[in-house]
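User: quick one, sequence for these tokens?
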């Protein structure tokens, strides 16, 4: 009773008849064919060569589906039982392609390889446990077919996506990542870290009150984050510039702006003014170094120029805030 309660309506693979196993293989091939076609459609605009590869893999799945249906008609007739992978306990699952969008080219290739490996492994293990000779043969044939799918995928990739095309697609994906996440995130981090220096440290040295300084820093950071996020999302929809989703860019910019300001506001939760200020100043230079590193790594800005721009600018703003606070 308890087993039935926890397992719900799923059936054990061992309880399936040979006809049901064949029906399960047919529905799995149909699902995989649709998934590959969805991958192809999702990649077609930015990665046409890889899209052609997934089109060809979808065609392969359709051929296997047709072969399985022909075998079912020969052995069991025209009526195929309705049984899908979600009806069977322990059967491998597939994520709908909309759950994995936007489609990363490397991630998509990895998922495709996992799809074939999962199917091959399942059929091979199932075949080794089958006692009936006909069932063992059927499952073994399916395992062989899935293993062959991997070979077909590898061959198609060699034909349709040679190394120079892969390198080109990887570079396209890297540029898209920079435009959608790194560039707006870096702009937000710079704005949040530097623009909040003056008000936070001016408030700190003017009042000597760590709690009020924290509240000012918190409000400045959140306000700047909201402003930067909306500005980034609103000024460019990404259609003409190719910079990607305005929502993602807005979130990247807004979140990083808030983080940049909070970094040197949070130390003022410490009641002792001198300790809080010392830690806050140390955090400022860590933030400035992080911005310099991101500029150098992702934007390919030379170390010297990045350090001069960021550290000099940040130091001047910090000094201005302190001078205004003690005036």
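Assistant:
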């Amino acid at each position: 009773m308890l087993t039935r309660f926890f397992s719900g309506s799923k059936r054990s693979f061992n309880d399936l008849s040979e006809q049901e196993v064949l029906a399960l293989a047919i529905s799995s091939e149909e699902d995989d064919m649709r998934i590959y076609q969805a991958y192809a459609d999702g990649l077609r605009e930015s990665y046409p060569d890889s899209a052609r590869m997934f089109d060809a893999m979808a065609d392969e799945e359709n051929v296997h589906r047709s072969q399985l249906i022909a075998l079912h008609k020969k052995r069991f007739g025209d009526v195929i039982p309705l049984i899908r992978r979600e009806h069977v306990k322990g059967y491998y699952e597939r994520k709908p392609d909309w759950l994995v969008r936007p489609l990363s080219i490397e991630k998509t290739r990895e998922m495709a390889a996992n799809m074939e490996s999962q199917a091959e492994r399942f059929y091979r293990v199932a075949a080794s446990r089958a006692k009936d000779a006909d069932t063992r043969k059927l499952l073994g044939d399916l395992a062989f077919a899935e293993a062959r799918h991997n070979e077909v995928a590898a061959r198609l990739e060699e034909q349709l996506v040679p190394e120079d095309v892969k390198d080109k697609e990887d570079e396209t994906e890297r540029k898209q990542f920079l435009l959608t996440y790194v560039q707006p995130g870096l702009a937000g981090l710079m704005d949040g870290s530097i623009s909040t220096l003056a008000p936070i440290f001016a408030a700190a040295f003017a009042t000597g009150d760590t709690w009020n300084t924290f509240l000012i820093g918190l409000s400045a950071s959140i306000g700047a984050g909201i402003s930067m996020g909306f500005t980034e999302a609103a000024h460019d929809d990404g259609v003409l510039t190719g910079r990607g989703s305005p929502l993602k860019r807005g979130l990247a910019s807004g979140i990083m702006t808030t983080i940049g300001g909070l970094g040197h506001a949070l130390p003022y939760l410490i009641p002792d003014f001198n300790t809080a200020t010392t830690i806050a100043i140390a955090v400022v230079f860590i933030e400035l170094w992080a911005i310099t590193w991101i500029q150098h790594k992702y934007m390919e800005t030379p170390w010297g120029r990045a350090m001069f721009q960021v550290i000099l600018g940040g130091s001047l703003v910090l000094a201005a805030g302190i001078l205004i606070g003690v005036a």
